[in-house]
Amino acid sequence: MTKYPDLPETIAVFPLPGALLLPRARLPLHIFEPRYLAMLDDALKSGTRMIGMVQPTSAPDGSSGLSRIGCAGRITQFSETEDGRYMITLTGVSRFRVLREVDGFTPYRRCDVSWSGFERDQGGVERDEGFDRPAFMALLDRYFDGQNLDVDWGTLEDAEDELLVNSLSMLLDFGPEDKQALLEAPSLTTRRETLVTLIEYALRGGITKDFLQ
């Protein structure tokens, strides 16, 4: 795993609405736009093979901004299709804070970033000491039943706390603002509590994308 002093000061960013990457988690991506194919080619040539995932925001003038916190991932798997598209997997390394966007000649966006405050992201698997797993699984059962989703319960029940909470945070269909709240949670416990709140709100018929604004 990349260690804190080796993280780059400038990284390519991929603003993708609703796509959430978390430290030590894996995010599959299908890359086909020319600018992002160029981004991937450049990332593969770099020493870190890193890309930053960031939620885009809308500015008052209609331009596309970037959320202040994202998560960088290392390209750990990739394959190329016959028509030149890429199927890749990013493995989360660390969150970062966007300092400024960098002007340049690349077709994709790049940012100067700070990794300060996210040193814990590169440690071992995080624990959630107050996790009431039976109650959480019962809540999930109600949620999946309401969404008419088939679930591999064996896989969920066998997953460690961090893998379970982070995977659900990434996979469940919440709005970009809610995904950002899950990303910015300072600990696994806080992320699990936020996730529970979002699921409970959805079960009450709420529109989760408006809940955490």
TrEMBL record:
Domain named Lon N-terminal: residues: 11-203
Keywords: Hydrolase, Protease
Primary gene name: lon2
PROSITE patterns with a match to the protein in the record: LON_N (PS51787)
Pfam families recorded: LON_substr_bdg
Any GO MF annotation of the entry: serine-type endopeptidase activity
GO biological process, one term: proteolysis
Enzyme Commission designation: 3.4.21.53
Name of the protein in question: Lon protease 2
Signal peptide (UniProt feature, chain positions): none
InterPro entries listed in its UniProt record: Lon_prtase_N (IPR003111), Lon_prtase_N_sf (IPR046336), PUA-like_sf (IPR015947)
Source organism of this protein record: Pseudoprimorskyibacter insulae
